[in-house]
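Example record used in the benchmark description.
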Amino acid sequence: MNGAPRTESTPLPLPLARQVEAAFQRFESAWRAGQRPLIEDHLGSLPGPARTVLLPELLELELSCRRRAGETVRPEEYRQRFPEHAALIESLFREEAGKAAGVASREQDSAASPVGAGP
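Model output (structure tokens):
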């Protein structure tokens, strides 16, 4: 992640995009300061289209921060918090599992290949 929300569908009007960016930055800053901000609190004041753009970004950031802190993160927890976004949550967890499997596979490949083996 590059630290800024992405808009994959129709671009938001500039004032709304700025609100999304500001909410993302506040959420990210709170995590970096060692706080545990709630995604729900950062979505609450935004209109629907902005929430649609911001939710996946905040979920991805929170998952990343929690994993770096050594926490076990389960999709069930997020399905309970955001039942109307179950498909998004499944997609994020599948994507993360795929990345982790790819990293593990590359590490195994590099460990199995002898480096500098001579004739």
